[in-house]
TrEMBL record:
Top-level taxonomic group: Bacteria
Sequence similarity: Belongs to the AHA1 family.
Lineage of source species: Bacteria, Bacillati, Actinomycetota, Actinomycetes, Kitasatosporales
Record domain Activator of Hsp90 ATPase homologue 1/2-like C-terminal: where: 25-138
CDD domains: SRPBCC_CalC_Aha1-like_6
Protein name as annotated: ATPase
Gene3D superfamilies hit by this protein: 3.30.530.20
Length: 170
């Protein structure tokens, strides 16, 4: 099966935001643990070390990138179990990322990954990467076969390069 891109580009007061979503059949607290507990993040993104708290910096090993490099991640906001905002710093620059979790009445949780952009160059590489990682999150929770990056890139590159900003989400 070929994964379909889901990312959308929105215009905000601070610039553009690339937003990708997934829905989980689980309570918000359980999904929160999947994106903050180092043992659980190791399954789909990479382990992290340090003391996680707002204003602190932790180190995250990008376990599924070539060379498995470590990256510095400053925690800008942590509002369990609904919102996490971080800024990463590595050889590729600085990225501001946000996770928003919303519970639904039927027991599901909607996860929105927001990449706050300083420009749209490189979107054709960044977007497929986030699709890959979010699908890894889904399958790490469901116990399925983890996806391979080759299924996302370069197949989704044109989709993300063709995105045009939409008005802000409500």
């Amino acid at each position: 099966m070929t994964p379909q891109p889901t990312g959308r580009l929105f215009r905000s007061a601070d610039g553009d935001e690339l937003i990708l979503t997934r829905t989980f059949r689980a309570p918000v607290e359980d999904v929160w643990a999947s994106v903050t507990d180092p043992e659980r993040t190791a399954r789909w993104f990479g382990p992290w070390e340090g003391q996680g708290a707002p204003g602190r910096t932790v180190r995250v090993r990008l376990a599924f990138e070539e060379g498995e490099p470590w990256s510095e991640v400053r925690i800008d906001a942590c509002e369990p179990p609904r919102r996490l905002v971080v800024t990463t710093q590595d050889d590729y620059g600085s990225w501001r990322l946000e996770i928003r979790l919303t519970g639904t009445d039927d027991g599901h949780t909607r996860l929105a990954l927001v990449h706050h952009l300083t420009g749209t160059e490189g979107l054709g590489e960044v977007g497929p990467g986030w699709e890959y990682y979010l699908d890894r999150l889904v399958t790490s929770r469901d116990g399925g076969d983890l996806p391979e990056f080759e299924a996302y890139y370069p197949a989704q590159k044109a989709y993300f390069e063709g995105l045009t900003p939409l008005p802000p989400e409500d």
